[in-house]
Design brief:
Elements lengths: L3 E4 L3 H13 L5 E4 L3 H10 L3 E3 L3 H7 L2 E4 L6 H7 L6 E4 L6 H7 L4 E6 L9 E7 L5 H12 L2 E5 L5 H9 L1 H18 L4 H22 L3 H8 L5 H9 L4 H20 L1
Parallel strand pairs: 1-2, 1-4, 2-3, 4-5, 5-6, 7-8
Antiparallel strand pairs: 6-7
Helix pairs in contact: 7-12, 8-9
Length: 262
């Protein structure tokens, strides 16, 4: 492989580059960004980094390139690389594959919706392929995204749902964790203890479900001893509209993603 290019060196682009560089240390990383400090971060933290002057230089040097710029900036980038026939992976939210293919009419296009846990190698992402993708591209994309966490192929129309569920989801989960911390503090726990217990409870629960394949409902039953503390708490939680509130939250984020795409 000639190398992986990153047009845009923001947080998400850097996180993906870091994960890929760690998994495939023999692969060169080419990067461009208008902010010199972002390029310097790549050079300082990653191995085999080559800083380039602009998007067209990245497109020429790299076999695969991530377009990791804000949606409002992508048109300028696409115009600069319009003649490329490379594998182009866009993480620009709401920018349709058809729009990218319409400008870069030789590129093989992939659209990805990552999320911020990518920063610690725990990404949850959805991705969709464009019309010119080759069979070998599919496996390469799976490997590159898998270096940063979990990634699932979906129809492009479902990327809005991915945005609502896992793209925006870390903010919603963080609010729940915040509520747990505040409840612990309100009961007299030291702030650091309340924070650590809350974080480990969320982390441990997710890990238990992931590692065992257990359904959430089964875990609820496992923890709920008759007339015990969990049952007392569940009576309050399950008498509320918690499921509807969470569903409405994710649907609202999904609908907003659709609006931005239009």
């Amino acid at each position: 492989m000639k190398g992986i290019g990153f047009i845009g060196g923001g947080n998400m682009g850097f996180a993906l580059a870091k994960a890929i560089s760690s998994r495939f240390p023999e692969t060169a990383i080419h990067v461009c960004d208008l902010r010199r400090e972002r390029v310097e971060l790549f050079e300082r933290e990653l191995i085999r980094v080559r800083a380039l002057a602009g998007a067209s230089a990245v497109a020429e040097a790299a076999e695969v390139m991530f377009v990791a710029v804000k949606p409002q900036d992508i048109q300028t980038v696409l115009e600069e690389i319009r003649d490329t026939d490379r594998l182009l992976i866009s993480i620009a939210a709401g920018v349709a594959i058809s729009r990218i293919e319409g400008v870069c009419n030789l590129a093989r296009v992939v659209r990805v919706m990552p999320n911020t846990p990518c920063l610690v190698g725990a990404m949850a992402a959805g991705y969709a392929f464009g019309s010119r993708i080759r069979p070998e591209d599919r496996e390469l994309v799976r490997q590159l995204l898998g270096a940063a966490g979990y990634a699932a192929e979906v129809d492009e129309r479902l990327l809005d749902a991915v945005t609502g569920l896992s793209g925006s989801g870390p903010a919603f989960v963080a609010r729940l964790i915040e509520a747990f911390i505040e409840a612990g503090k309100g009961l007299g726990l030291e702030p650091e203890v309340a924070r650590n217990l809350s974080l480990q409870t969320f982390f441990g629960t997710a890990k238990l479900l992931a590692d065992t394949g257990m359904e959430p409902r089964k875990l609820v039953e496992m923890v709920s001893s008759p007339k015990g503390t969990t049952v007392a708490g569940r009576e309050v939680l399950e008498a509320s509209d918690y499921a509807e509130v969470i569903g409405d939250t994710i649907r609202a984020a999904t609908e907003r993603s659709k609006e931005l795409g239009r």
